[in-house]
Amino acid sequence: MLLLVGVIVLVAAALATGLAWPGWMRQEIAGIPSAAVDRSTPDGTARGVVAAFNRRDVQRFVDELVCRDGRTPTDDGDMTLAEETLYRDVEPFDPRSEAAVAAVDPVFALEEVRALRPSDPGYDEGLEGAQVAIVSISFASAPPELRERLPDRKGALTMVDEDGAWVVCVMGFAPVGELAGEVPPDPDPASPTGRAQAFIAAVNAGDQAEARIYMCSTADEVDDFVEQTIADGAQLRLNAPVTTFGDGDGSLQIWHTAGGQERRAPGFMKQEPDGWCVSVLGLQG
User: Fold this and answer.
1) Domain enclosing residue 47, as ranges
2) Which alpha helices (H) appear in the chain, and where do they start and end?
3) 171 and 210 co-located in one domain
4) Less packed terminus of the chain by CB within 10 Å, N or C?
5) Helical (H) or strand (E) element with 131
6) pTM over 0.85
7) Do residue 244 and residue 274 come from a single domain?
């Protein structure tokens, strides 16, 4: 399956600013043997990608684990699209990095491999059957003066079956908490996001009475939504922090998953005397 180059460029731009990198220099650590990668399954490819990254073997990654479109040269012809994204998001891999940054050894870990969801970065309806690997990066070895510059990251690597082999065709890494769908617990439980997270936690626990604490006083339809969600065994997930606007209003980006199907459940919050509350919530699609 071929993926339009424009999708890769779009995801790269959405996750961070672009980087033009001169030269076809690729990195690998000499003397470290690399095992053959089983690309017959998404899990095998994902493990191979993480192993290559932990060896800093960018050449192996590009040559064996990236789809044809990802190996397309950039406009200036100095590197592939996959390299452009990798050097932009993992700065110690960039051959232009100063010595102190290049000396940092990022540690990659595979968190999960699953079917691509509509809420994932870079989702496209043309990617039916694609799988995604969620990979974390720790920069714990960075000296204190570089930790702010090198925050731990998390990425989504979308894999497709191309000529019988699973390969990466869309990827991008962002600081932990900034990737779509990765909303860390708000330290202020009274904030709009904190209240929304408490509401979602109650619904996911099947506790309608607890969820009502975070519903507005006139939100009967939200109560009906919660009752049906619990009855269906569905789970809710906050996809982004609550965005506030106007005088005490906020918008919710929630995803509803039931029976393996993910659907949008957008909504609104408002501020009542006892705090922020969910006023509107409903399924789309």
Assistant:
1) 42-175
2) 5-15, 42-54, 58-65, 81-89, 99-102, 144-147, 192-204, 208-212, 220-231
3) no
4) C
5) strand 131-138
6) no
7) yes
